[in-house]
Amino acid sequence: VLCVVYAIWRLRGRKSRSGLQPKWGLLFGFAYLAGLSHILLDYTNAYGVRPFWPFSERWYSWDIVSIVEPVLLLFLIGGLALPGLSALIDKEMNVRRKVPRGRLAASLALLGMALVWMVRDYEHRHAIASLEARTYEGAQPLRASAYPYMLDPFHWSGVVETNDFFATTLVNSSSSEVDPGGDMKIRQKPEETPVTLAAKRTYLGRVYLDWAAYPITETEQQESGTVAYVVRFKDLRYLYPDEPGDARRTVLSAFVTLDKKLKTVAEGMGVRRAPE
């Protein structure tokens, strides 16, 4: 965008209405900072980001806010809307400001975002510590993660991996209580078969497993048609334990269909019906 603006400035004969020369180095720095801030916002949610691609394909995520977080949106919208409202008030009162309009609103919006992140990070660490401090059906956790709900900083979806199974449960970080409603779900790790291995070797299977933090597979055998098997990939990050069934959070799931010779028939994302 900055290059386009620079090209237009050159075509206009390096002139501006104010007569001041733009500080292109400073503008480039601000544009670069804006790009980095976008990566930071992606890093704070559970989806994650690959900031060092193509040198490294590792995913990083902070897991402290939802992919869509209303509180953060409120601060950002307020930071954009308040200067416009202030301009209308100043115009009605015939007031001229010496400082750039919007500086206070932008500062308050950034401060609000920082406070949300600080509170969320503290509660996130507390939730993970609570998950790691107990056993699950007598098994010690190998790793544990906590994923956020919108609005409520004390309500988390916990995922725990043991040697033989995954456990998904609610966590109340304010009281350090794990599974307050007794609704913990245990998912045995699926056995590897030639069918699942064939699905994981497909392009979609490799990409999905590279991205997913807690991947599981579900195999469905078809009775007729060209498709003999449907292998579905799901990530437990998005299967929240208090939601009825898995359908509400399977947008980020995937499927691979195979024929009787374990050749790929189709690959796809989401809740679409696999072709038969």
Give a brief rundown of this model.
With about 280 residues, the chain is of the alpha+beta class. It is built from 6 helices and 9 strands.
Strand content: 15-25%
Mean pLDDT: 87
Q: Outline, from the CA principal axes?
A: extended
Provide the domain count. 3
Roughly how many Å apart are the termini?
Answer: 46 Å
Helix content: 25-40%
Number of helices: 6
Uncertain ranges: none
Largest sheet: 5 strands, antiparallel
Structure write-up:
With 276 residues, the chain is an alpha+beta fold. The chain has three domains: 1-41; 64-189, no CATH class; 194-269, no CATH class. The chain is 37% helix and 19% strand. The chain has helices spanning 2-11, 24-44, 70-93, 103-132, 194-200, 203-211, and strands at residues 143-148, 155-161, 165-172, 177-178, 185-188, 215-221, 229-235, 254-258, 264-269. The protein is extended and about 75 Å long. It starts with a helix and ends in a 7-residue tail after the last strand. The mean pLDDT is 87.
Q: What attributes does this structure have?
A:
276 residues; alpha+beta; 3 domains; five-stranded antiparallel β-sheet; four-stranded antiparallel β-sheet; 37% helix; extended
Describe the protein's topology.
Blueprint: H1 2-11, H2 24-44, H3 70-93, H4 103-132, E1 143-148, E2 155-161, E3 165-172, E4 177-178, E5 185-188, H5 194-200, H6 203-211, E6 215-221, E7 229-235, E8 254-258, E9 264-269
Antiparallel strand pairs: 1-2, 2-3, 3-4, 3-5, 6-7, 7-8, 8-9
Helix pairs in contact: 3-4
